[in-house]
């Protein structure tokens, strides 16, 4: 065991050093798309040695390759964008396709038919790429940059965008700490079977599934959702694969800015407020941000940055029935029928659940030459939501839970063109997620989770059919999780076979939580306070002093007393290893076979 731990430590150190070295010269957009095709002459004979050039119209970056003996070419690892593609060889007139749009993870086939130079000087075709990728079998849906900017959405979040795609349905998050990220179901699933990547790096929650980190939409270029038949390179899920890529700078300095605001004047009363004739619940939400990008060295080096801040002040109304039951408990406390400290004397008519969310992203691209490019991206998120567990209005908020989360993600990538045959793309990724779900007392002002074990256990929860008090079993948790990932993708052209293979290794130290669940005891009662205090059913002649009034006692477990206590520790050092091989075999001009195999292994996960 000691040897394994040392080995993981050296792997983590080596990964950190490699990312540092890769980012040192500067740090380019993650290339995921491909141009391929075949070049023929007028007699349908293949033409080897043709120079194929693809020029990104926004950045001026040029990639070139040469057709092989079968007249086939492949140009993998291209950034998404609009390209001019040309084919040239001595003795033949040049041919070109202009303004071809290359989307995320797309493989666009462009075949050329060359004429002799003496017959026709040149042939230029202008227009968009085919809507159907004729060599791919994956079923994908894509959201473009213009849609990200113009589609009307209330939240403007990643999952808000994903909800617009076919087969997607919004769902309640599986954990309250993921409320800012949200949860989306695909094909009737729970939303956890989603493999999410951004800029080629993993963005999947290793504990609960689904998307882990949020990103401002101002930083995102494109979404793609693959629901089935995706390639072997996209694995670790039986559900869907989500690929996202962040924006890059271009040769033109450009920027954007936005502000969205809503308040209660633009919202109506909720159902419970109307039923109980209550005032409208307070609501205020401001969402603002912007971006800027441009050249550092024209046609070679670019930068892009974006940021966003969300401030939301909203509340969850407490229905009159529940509010009146809590008022009876307050009165019983004041008259000595219930011990002091078990009920919040100032329980709210509407529980405030404010949110403060900050997101930012910075990216640099460097085209060293035709064969080497670098990319680096750093992003962060700070997420604060008070009263995070107040999702049903039946608690007195005696001991609310406040959620504090912070994330950062650093990606560095090197793309190396292997002559005319292929591309090697290596990606290094480091990520951190810190979380504190802090239970605190509004009566004493003590912070149990934050200051554990220096704060004694809180009083028991009183649990009735309609209402309850205190934190009960939800006693808070902390987490401090890192991800260190190294991934290598190799694309090769061998005759009519476009091969793609690679490997991925992720090290996840301290994966899990330090949890205080069930530190506080709970007393369960058969009936509500109104029944007990009025003895309306004849079972409580002495009110709360009636013997046998408690239906169940749930004992606390591991709470802190006098500076000594223990927490449930589920943390462990986990690893993930993956290998894949994919063959796009173009057997004829009209038939391409997509063949792939993948192997994954989890270690202590």
Keywords:
605 residues, 5-stranded mixed β-sheet, mainly beta
Please characterize this protein's 3D structure.
The structure is a single chain. With about 600 residues, this protein is mostly beta strands. Among the domains are: about 100 residues, Immunoglobulin-like (Sandwich); about 325 residues, no CATH class. Helix content is about 10%, strand content about 45%. The chain has six helices and 33 strands. Strands 17, 18, 19, 20, 21, 22, 23, 24, 26, 27, 28, 31, 32 and 33 form a 14-stranded antiparallel β-sheet that branches. A five-stranded mixed β-sheet has the order 3-2-5-6-9, with no helix packed on it. A five-stranded mixed β-sheet has the order 10-15-16-13-14. The two termini are about 15 Å apart. The N terminus is likely disordered.
Brief overview:
With 605 residues, the protein is mainly beta.
Number of strands: 33
Q: Unreliable runs, pLDDT <50, ≥5 residues?
A: 1-29
Main β-sheet: number of strands, strand sense, barrel status? 14 strands, antiparallel
Mean pLDDT: 85
Question: Secondary-structure blueprint of this entry?
Answer:
Blueprint: H1 2-23, E1 33-41, E2 51-56, E3 62-66, E4 72-78, E5 81-88, E6 95-102, E7 107-109, E8 112-114, E9 123-126, E10 139-143, H2 145-150, H3 158-162, E11 168-171, E12 183-186, E13 194-198, E14 201-202, E15 220-228, E16 240-246, E17 254-263, H4 271-275, E18 283-297, E19 301-317, H5 320-334, E20 350-352, E21 355-367, E22 372-385, E23 401-418, E24 422-439, E25 461-463, E26 477-494, E27 497-511, E28 514-515, E29 522-525, H6 529-534, E30 550-554, E31 568-569, E32 572-586, E33 592-603
